Amino acid sequence: MQQINVRMIPFLLIANLITFGVFGFDKLQAKRQQWRISENALLGLSLIGIVGAASGMILFNHKTSKKSFLVKFFIVALIDVVLLYRLIRH
Predict the structure, then answer these.
(1) Residue 8 pLDDT exceeds 90
(2) Does the residue 13 lie in any domain?
(3) Residue 44: domain span
(4) What per-residue confidence (pLDDT) applies to 1?
């Protein structure tokens, strides 16, 4: 594994934990019918923390029935796969 990739592991771990927490917080806010985090912010966090986002969506059952969000989420996931592939190959 390249040196730069090893240094990214703590960053990615923290980013995924934060993203997971934000999805959980947004679900809690939805249940309380209070101020919500925008979908664009959730998708932006998903770009960095895709595993945390997917885990949060599944565990909290959040945004899983909203098809327009799911389409955008899968596009973000595809972007992540392409970026990961390029990082590994480069």
Answers:
(1) no
(2) yes
(3) 6-89
(4) 46
